[in-house]
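hey so u asked for the seq, here:
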Amino acid sequence: MALRRPGGGELVIAVVGLVLAVVLGSLGTTKVLAVPAMRAAAAHARLGVNAYRLIGCAEVMAAVGLVAGRWWSPAGAAAAVGTVLLMVGAVSVHLSNRDSAARLVPAIGTAALAVGYLVLLPAATS
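ran it, structure tokens below
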């Protein structure tokens, strides 16, 4: 597949991709670094710190894929699909922990943005 250069008609997909990349990159980095708040979140999720670090690595890789997707759409598509799968896992963990609805909102919102990115991608690349 050929590399493509983003044009002015791709503003919405660029903004959605950038928002997702910033969210995933920042949260993923804090998980990889195992900052105290993420250690507590891992314990709440009944996951080990190393498992949480792996989730963080996947989030950082998704952020990189979304940025690369500006020039090569298959990378953005793969990153968005991976993000949806990560968020399905997050929702599943929250539900199994019987967390409040407020704890589900970030994962559901992130998944919705990733689905929106996937829906908009074909129009932005044609």
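The CA atoms of residues 21 and 63 lie 4 Å apart. The chain has one domain: 10-120.
lmk if thats what u needed
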